Amino acid sequence: MNARPLCDSGLFAMSADAGERFQVRGQAETLLSLNLRASRSDPDALFNLAAMSWGGLGVPQDPRKGRELYRRAGEAGHKEARHCTTNLLANGVAGPRDWLKALERLEGEARTDPRRRRMLELLGKMQLNADGDPLALPEGEALSQSPHVTLFTRLLTAAECEYLRDSAEPAYGPSIVNDSNGATTRDPIRTSDGSTLHWLIEDPVVHAINRRLAAASGSAYDCGEATQILRYRPGQQYRPHLDAREAANPRVLTALAYLNHDFKGGETLFVETKLKVKGRKGDVLVFRNTGPDGRPDPLSRHAGLPVTAGTKYLASRWIRAHRWIP
Length: 326
Prior knowledge:
By secondary structure, the chain is an alpha+beta fold. The chain is built from nine helices and 16 strands.
């Protein structure tokens, strides 16, 4: 797997040299050294401490502390930390949200960074209000009332679909689960590969798309989990399952954005009602996973049928009943 920068990649960890010291010299000694350097405004030390606090790497997980350390690292000159701060200002995770300030920062970053420039170009083509919400949405087509399933045609542009796919590269990995012993193993239900656009890399473009998905689903942005990009190659599938489970904060809605349509097979099948959907590039399918009582709706049981030719790309966003982001 090719290495990519932390805030533009989907990977968050300490830098390689800090990680090696963490293993060789020991946790306490490494932390002491990093904190000493950070007290002198060393950008790399601040960045590494930020990653540790954000991800709970050797220290208690504290996203708010991590966000502040990213801000300090950026002010000290760390480029990736500056990008993290802009992204977090845009999405409001682990601290205040300031969409206009994020756009102002992005304009400065775009002067020297082609990827940030691409973000500005895409945002310039979106019809957004001052909060980054869509000014209008296409009317959805109700495909089913029970379960409640709605299809939004061309909710995303082709360029936005390509951007989401590019954002997921090259961080795809197999879908895994924890077995009864706590060890990770390949998911027997979902055999696709996935790449999570976690909050650090939820840049202003991804965030604006997520707010559009929230508006289409009639939900609040902060109830959504991080968007996943799923890749299904021939033979890969998502076997019948329910997205909702009994929980205090269940997944009440699912939004699926089709990022391409040049593949065969791969339809979304609602098993109990036999409703079968294959969206085209830019279409978004929204369905409810719970009934009026808040419990999982058996009729929402669905599957991603095996792809028979080509590669299917899908953006998946699970939406909780209540706030989910830190």
